[in-house]
Amino acid sequence: MSAAGDRPDLRSLSLSHLGRFLAGLGEKPYRARQIHRWLHQKGAASLDEMTDLPVALRRLLAERARLDTLEMAGERRSADGTIKWKWRTRDGRFLESVYMPEEGRKTLCLSSQVGCAIGCTFCLTGTMGLLRNLTPGEIVDQVARANRRLCELGERPAPRPLTNLVFMGMGEPLHNYDAVVAALDILLSEDGPNFSHRRVTVSTSGLVPQMRRLGEETEVKLAVSLNATTDAQRDALMPVNRRWPLGELLRACRSFPMKRGRRITFEYVLLAGVNDSDADAARLARLIRGIPAKVNLIPYNVNPGLGFQAPARERVEAFRDALVAGNVTAVVRKNRGRDISAACGQLAVELGGPGDPRRGATAAGPG
Ligand code: SAH
Ligand code: SF4
Fold first, then answer.
1. What percentage of residues in the chain have a pLDDT greater than 90?
2. Tens digit of each residue's pLDDT (9 = 90 or more) over 111-163
3. 3-state class of 247 per DSSP?
4. Closest Cα to atom 24, ligand 1: which residue?
């Protein structure tokens, strides 16, 4: 039998790729749709679950392909309904997804990488560095596993209680561009979980060329983590700004192909004494003037050791009021799941603990 790495992971293949792969095995075309539905609509964890596939075909697939499934390595439930899952990959890496139920929507926050290379100075994931990209299969399986677990917990409607997806977990999605776009293809497929592009948001720290591509190649919504209003400030918080400074980033936002009635979400983490003054609010309103946009203000979730503080509540409200006075739509993001470290920028598998992905980093063989 060939090494696992040479065989395609069935979960990572789009419907058309799956069709070509099966044709190569001499199988009938309709099998592709059948398997795709098992994997991405019903969330099958193994070939054995696909009971309407002939046993001989399941055996052939087990030989010629592989099926990577995330294993639940931890689940923490918050008093506010938020659930954080830790998943283990086939090669023993760990990643996290966060479920956030709200009135009328049930959102899953997805990870796109194990760690992150962008290195924002306030972000816990950033302190891990990039361990590796997730595969398309590992990205979409977060959705399948979460849906299954939510059904077990009584959420409805089965098999897909989730209504919305946001790429705001670990990693910079546009730094793993091809895998994220391949995952979107599956997630939006009618023969998959069939999410509407209106209910899927990709958040980026501002990788300008990939933002352009995303706008050309997909219809999903865009969120941009702005977090600062001058280049000096943004250089210090987000090293990516040295490569694509504010001027270029905002130009890319202005030219982002927007569907009618759509807006770009600008995320702005409020850091006490750093970027939370009235002057910042006024600059922010000026910077985004003319862009159909809304601003999501995120009071900092303190990560001890990184040296930043959250502003007082009054400061947060004053900042929002200053934006609103400048004709900007602005909301303060509710802090969810703080009690289980599931809030924005708190995703990193407990550093130094048994789950610390870096512990196995040198011992593990190539994936
Ligand atoms: N890498 C992507 C998506 C994941 S980060 C990006 O940066 O956009 C999701 C959001 O969490 C970003 O807007 C980021 O600025 C914010 N964030 C990171 N650390 C945070 C923290 N400790 N408190 C509040 N928000 C944080
Ligand atoms: Fe990466 Fe986003 Fe964290 Fe920056 S804020 S380090 S881009 S995950």
1. 87
2. 999 999 999 999 999 999 999 999 999 999 999 999 999 999 999 999 999 99
3. helix
4. 300
- Residues whose CB falls within 8 Å of the CB of residue 199, separated by 6 or more in sequence, listed in order: 105, 163, 164, 165
The atom of ligand 2 lying closest to the CA of 116 is 1
Active site residues: 96, 344
Q: How far apart are CA 313 and CA 142, in angstroms?
A: 34
Kindly report whether the global pTM for this prediction surpasses the value 0.85: yes
180 CA distance to ligand 2 centroid (A)?
16
Please report the atom of ligand 1 found closest to the CA of residue 306. Answer: 22
Distance 367 CA to ligand 2 centre (A): 24
pLDDT attached to residue 58: 98
DSSP 274: T
Atom 21 of ligand 1 has which residue's CA nearest to it? 345
Q: Report how far apart, in Å, the C-alpha atoms of 261 and of each of 79, 166, 220, 264, 291 are.
A: 35, 19, 13, 10, 12
* Cβ count within 10 A of residue 45: 17
pLDDT tens digit sequence for 19-47: 999 999 999 999 999 999 999 999 999 99
Report whether residue 276 contacts ligand 2, using a CB cutoff of 6 Å.
no
C-beta separation of 347 from 172 below 8 A: no
Q: Is any atom of ligand 1 closer than 6 Å to the C-beta of 122?
A: yes
Least Cα distance to 83 among 364, 336, 305, 310 occurs for 336
User: Considering Cα of 242, then 246, then 248, then 253, what sign does the dihedral take?
Assistant: positive
